[in-house]
Amino acid sequence: MLLGLSNSTKLAETLTKLNYPQALTATATTLVMLLIGSATIVLSQQSSSESQNSTDEVTPSGLEAPGVALDPAGQPIAFSHAHHAGQYQIECEFCHAYARRGPVAGIPSVERCVGCHQSILTDQPEIQKLLEYWENEEPIPWLKVHNLPDYVRFTHKAHVRAGIDCASCHGDVKSMEIAQQVESLSMGWCLDCHNEREAPRDCLVCHY
Hints:
The protein is mostly helical and 208 residues long.
C-alpha cells in the first residue's frame, strides 16, 4: 500500500515537471489512488476468506473440540447403558467409581470392563473390540458427551453426597442405548436447581 502511494506521488511530480495543467495532474493522481484502494480492498477480502476457510478445516469432523463428541453415536465401542444399567441394573458407581469421591465421575478402565467380558459374550463384535484394546494395552478413546467450560468447577462428589440422583442431570440413562446430553447444563439451568433446593448460589461455589 505504501509502495502504491509512493508511485502515485512520483507520477504527480513527473506530470508537474512536464508542465501539464494542475487539473490534469490532480485527476491523474486521484485515478491512481482509486485504483490502488480498490485493489487493496479486493486483496483484503480474499485474504479474509482464505483465513476463514483455513479455520473451518481445523476442527475434525464429528468433534466439537479434541475428545468431545458432536455425535454421541461416534464412540469407539457401541456401549449400551440400557443393557447394563437398565436390563442388568448395574449401579452407576460400579463403573463411574469416582463420582462419590471427587469432581469427575470417571470412565471405567479397560481392566474393569474386561473383568466381566473376559468370559461373557466374547464372540460379540463389540466385545472383541474391547478385548483388542486390552491385548494391545491401549485405553479406549471414549468421546466426552457432557463437557462443561473450563471456568466451571463442577464436582460430582458434592452432588452425589447430597443425594442428587444421576438422572437429574444426565436424564434416564437406563433407557439410553447411546448416552447423550438431555439438559442444557447452562448456568441458568444450574441456578434454577440450586434455588429450588436452597443450595448455595455464591459465584465462588462454581467459579474459583
